[in-house]
Amino acid sequence: MDKLLDLQAFKDFFRSGQIGGVILLICVAISLFIANSSYATAFADFLATDFGFTFGANAYVFSVSAWINDALMAVFFLLVGLEIKREMVEGELSSIKKASLPVVAALGGMLVPAFIYFMFNKGENTASGWGIPMATDIAFALAIISMLGKHVPTSLKVFLAALAIVDDLGAILVIAIFYTNEVHFDYLLMAAGIVALLLVFNFLNVKPLYFYLIPGVFLWYFIHHSGIHATIAGVLLALTIPTNNTNVESPLEKLEHLLNGPVNYFIMPIFALANTNITFQKEMVSGLISPLGFGIITGLFIGKTIGVTLFSWAAVKLKLGSLPSRSGWKHIIGLGMLAGIGFTMSIFISLLSFSDVLHVTEAKFAVLCASVLSGIAGFAFLKSIPKKKPAVNPA
């Protein structure tokens, strides 16, 4: 009974995500329509419009797109980070074996796609894009699996959430090390100081949320200016907010409940509108069979499936982890397919990888195709798996 109570908040999170997932997909369609209509230029100009505020001698002015991708996405990562921490403290990830499996699976889901892309593009001027198929889009992957409802066990949803965030954190590290031209260590030190302060609050069991959220704003600012993707600030903040393993609502659970609605019904739809505006060009089709396009598609769809499944199998065989409860290897294969939804982070890495506009366009289209293929295949495969019937005790 206690285990069911522990998972209730997670079930509520995905129940709201089912409706949010439908809204998200509608916004993707709207964004693609706008990008390929007469409104494309006006929409692009709007996303590039700067706005913000000044505080003293400092000006905090960013484009609409930057506010969405860096600020709103940090809130989404905060919500996912809260859920992961709670599950590690009191839920499905509280066991060391269960917690280690998503990490190993995510590692396979990064290394195998990157290797596949590299083999197709070795010696080409597109070799620098090896990081593109490494990423899993948390938002879209969780939206798809949430729409499966009771067709998949809750533990598998927790597993995907953990895998996706480890995957994206890995992608952020790759960006910081290999795709960042300049890292400002003075801002990193200030961010480390904020994290240290938040950890002291946690150690002292300070419960009012404003003790965490106000410094969290400064943490976001320092991370943003350090050269590292600002969304990691949300994860760092989430890890410092206190929780417990009792039925008494903790500060972490309170904040999680407050964020569920805004994230699913506002933040992610807005994010989809701003980031799916890909203008289709005839060169994109031939680009799908080029080393660049083929490397991305095979890396995301095939590489992710193989990497997640193979590394998970190895981890279980080596007794480094155990499968999520009420799930089998078919579930892991389907989850590996969903992990091939690269989308946001993959497109972001595409922008960092190439200076040639045509390469960027081909890469974005390949990412879109691979993500659609992975999403449809993963959804259909997981839905086809018969649900396990509860064991019947003999009379």
Report on this model:
- The protein is mainly alpha-helical and 395 residues long.
- It has 15 helices and two strands.
- Strands 1-2 form a two-stranded antiparallel sheet.
- Helix 4 crosses helix 6 and helix 7 (185-203) runs antiparallel to helix 8 (210-226).
- The longest helix is centred in the first third of the chain and has 34 residues, at 2-35.
- The model is unreliable at 1-5 (pLDDT under 50).
Provide tags for this entry.
mainly alpha; 395 residues; two-stranded antiparallel sheet; 71% helix; disordered N terminus
SSE blueprint and pairings:
Elements: H1 2-35, H2 40-48, E1 50-55, E2 58-63, H3 64-90, H4 96-121, H5 138-146, H6 154-178, H7 185-203, H8 210-226, H9 232-240, H10 251-275, H11 283-287, H12 291-317, H13 329-338, H14 343-353, H15 357-384
How would you summarize this macromolecular structure in one to three sentences?
It is built from 15 helices and two strands.
Described by the principal axes of the CA atoms, the overall outline is globular
State the end-to-end CA separation: 24 Å
Strand order of the largest sheet: 1-2
Structural class: mainly alpha
What oligomeric arrangement do these chains adopt? single chain
Major beta sheet summary = 2 strands, antiparallel
> Helical percent range?
over 70%
Mean pLDDT: 84
The Rg value, from CA coordinates, equals 21 Å
Low-confidence stretches: 1-5
**Helical segment tally?**
15
Spell the H/E element sequence. Answer: HHEEHHHHHHHHHHHHH
DSSP strand count: 2
- Strand fraction band? under 5%
